[in-house]
Amino acid sequence: MKLIKYFLLSCLLLFSPMYSYQVTPNQTAYEFFTLANHAFEKSEWIEVIKYSKIIIQKFPNTSFTKDALYYLGVSYFNLKDYDISNKYFTRYLKDDFNPKYFEEIMHYKYSIAHFFKNGAKKRMFDWKKGPKLADALEDAIAIFDEIIASMPNHEIAIRSIFAKAELHFDQNDFKEAISTFESLVEKYEKHELAVESFIQIQKVYLKQTTYRKQDPNVLEFAKLNIEKFKEMHSREEEKAKILEDMLLEMKEKYAKGFLEIAEFYEKSKKNDAAILYYSKILESFPETESAKVAKSRFDKISQSPLPKGRGLNREDHG
After folding, report:
1. What is the full per-residue pLDDT of the chain (318 aa) written as tens digits?
2. Domain residue spans in the chain?
3. CB 62: neighbour CB atoms within 10 A?
4. Chain centroid to CA 217: how far?
5. Which option is the CATH number for 25-151: 1.10.340.30, 1.20.58.100, 3.40.50.410, 1.25.40.10?
6. From CA 93, how far away is CA 62, in angstroms rounded?
């Protein structure tokens, strides 16, 4: 019931006539800009919004309009109304090839994108009032793309590429995540986030691997990721160890899947089939914990135990 009342109140506010400030003939844009500027310096954001909107609505063709748009963007940002803030910043940048607050706005937009990425909501249907209920993940990606295109060689652009890739990963869009991480590695291979991108790519491959969903290509891609990393960052031994540990975890999942099948066949008294899967584990994933179990079970049900230190070929137990 409270939610319904809140929704109805929001609709009432949304469709009510906007408050119109009556400007007297002797009042000037400069007067309202001075008031907005003083409020801005005091972080009185509601006042800043009031005076800045008067400038935009009543004096749209003056030199103060651009700064008023910037003030509105900053004010709504500080009031945590990120969607409206971003729209005012975009209006400020429109049709201006050398805006005064360009870099400041890009940093604000970067923060807005991160807030959206981390779960901040926006209003539905571009409403200016009412509850914020809609996801803004697509908005985050669009803002990151805007930053990447506008400041391609700036630190903030590199971090935007990484954040965009993380967002794709969080959404289980694995192909786009890997592609975006790889683009960062290719363009900025010396940057610290290029090193981190290799780790994130490995995490993508690891997430794609489960006991029951096994794609041999993913395992091969993970191996190639390690090879490429060592070639480009030969001194990053600790990071290489992290990648190798994740690869081992992937192998463990593959081995665990085969182990479950082998144990099923063994319980079903189909020892030949069980031996086939136990041997597959010992051949392909000898370094896993599952291989130790497979070796024990193989030795127990096989007529000729596996010799110590020797891998098992399928031909031995056809």
Report:
1. 444 444 444 454 344 333 456 788 889 999 999 999 999 999 999 999 999 999 999 999 999 999 999 999 999 999 999 999 999 999 999 988 889 999 999 999 999 999 999 999 999 887 878 888 899 999 999 999 999 999 998 999 999 999 999 999 999 999 999 999 999 999 999 999 999 999 999 999 999 998 777 788 999 999 999 999 999 999 999 999 999 999 999 999 999 999 999 999 999 999 999 999 999 999 999 999 999 999 999 998 876 444 454 444 444 444
2. 25-151
3. 17
4. 24
5. 1.25.40.10
6. 16
